[in-house]
Amino acid sequence: MPYTLINLLDLIEIGGQSTCVGSKSGGKERCGNHNLITDVEKADLILLMMGSGASRKLVRMFLRNLAVFSLCKKNHQGQIEGVVKKWTEHTASTSMFEDTKSSKIPRIWYQTVENLKAELQQAQGLYSSAKTEAQKLKVSLEDARLQGQKAQELAQNTQIEVQRLLAENRSLKTSLTQISQEHRVSNLASSKLEAQVETLLQAKVELSESNIYLRTECAAAEEQVKTIRLQFATMEDVNSKLREDLEKTQQANLGLADTVSNLKSGVQGWKNKSIDLEWQVASLEKRLEVSTTSKDSLRGKLTDLRAKFEASKATEKKLTERNATLNLRTRELEKLQKEKQLVECEDERDETAMGAGISDEAQSVSTSWQCAVM
Question: What whole-number distance in Å separates Cα of residue 348 and Cα of residue 30?
Fold first, then answer.
């Protein structure tokens, strides 16, 4: 049975997916690789904005980012276009996403839109009042034309009256020309206001999206910095404990070195004594030939001396093993100290790289949104 991509409307209700929504094995089953926690949080934010009501233009922009954060970085980033296409088909069957002029406007944009509508209504009121004045002037012009006709009829009686009426006619024509020009200016101003209102709406939407995205990125970066600082503090505690253990071990090694040297001196003395005892045993064995009565006592002494000799050898062996163990612990502590120094250097590099990475990421995000606005 082929794998079916999760419906976008169900995804809005469920939230961001912790596992990859891509397909594997030729589209027969879901990938299931775990997504990053930060990607799941970003997907939740995008789904929340889509669920609050957004225009189809914004939905098309959101879907690509949602696909990026819902597919695993390892294997299925190449399936972004296919996932976006299927989710776009899901949006076509619902009325949740309307155009920008729909009544389903997110609350974060509602007040700005109302203010712009009020300004537009005020401009339309000014335009209507100018239009009314123009109509009144047209009526006056008609009256003037009637008076001109009457003046032409009276021109036969007096030429002076005709000249006066002609002059009034010219002045009225001039006024009409000015009124028509003012009417054209008012029309141009109204069209410019409408274009500015539409541009402001689009800029407001894009700025809101950019601010939300940047806040999300900054919050994630701050969490990463806090985690690194906690790790660094933990490493410092571990390093201080390792230093204390190293100092104690070094002091113990000094004491053990003195003890080993003393034991070596004692062993050497026991060896010398054993040589003397061997000579004594040899002499006693010669004397055994002379004195049979002291033979048993000499044999007992010989046994005791041999037992002491064996005990001294065993003690020497234990001291040698203990010295080897101490040397091994000393090497391990020196190795731990070197690893601690390497970890401190790597922590400093990571902290420096993290600071540079955060600034580069913020700059890249700002550049990408500027390009989207353009």
Answer: 40
Taking alpha carbons only, the member of 113, 333, 130 closest to residue 201 is: 113
Question: Does residue 45 contact residue 18 with C-beta atoms inside 8 Å?
Answer: no
Give me the CATH topology for the region 107-223. Answer: Helix Hairpins (1.10.287)
Residue type for position 144:
A
Which of these, 175, 180, 182, lies nearest to 144 by C-alpha position? 175
This prediction has a pTM of 0.29
Tell me phi and psi for residue 198, to 5 degrees.
-65, -40
> Smallest Cα–Cα separation from 247: which of 336, 322, 343, 342?
336
Q: Are 34 and 70 in contact (CB under 8 A)?
A: no
Using an 8 Å Cβ cutoff, are 176 and 135 in contact? no
Cβ atoms of 49 and 66 closer than 8 Å: no
- Determine the Cα–Cα distance for residues 266 and 276; give it in Å rounded to an integer: 15
How many CB atoms within 10 Å of residue 87? 24
Every domain of the chain and the residues it spans? 8-92, 107-223
| Farthest CA pair distance, the chain | 194
User: pLDDT tens, 67-102?
Assistant: 888 888 888 888 888 888 888 888 776 666 655 444
Q: pLDDT tens, 222-258?
A: 888 888 888 878 888 887 888 888 888 778 778 777 7
155 near 162, Cβ under 8 Å? yes
Residue 19's DSSP bridge partners are 34
CB of 54 closer than 8 Å to CB of 116: no
Distance CA 224, CA 38 (A): 10
Please check whether residue 63 is in contact with residue 87, taking contact to mean a CB–CB distance below 8 angstroms: yes
Closest CA to 341 of 216, 242, 226: 242
Report the 10 Å Cβ neighbour count for 253.
Answer: 17
CA distance 344 to 199: 53
Give me the mean pLDDT over the 40-65 stretch.
80
Give whole-number Cα distances, 118 to 21, 114, 123, 164, 197, in Å: 46, 6, 9, 48, 11
Q: Which residues pair with 29 in a beta bridge?
A: 24
d(CA 105, CA 97): 10
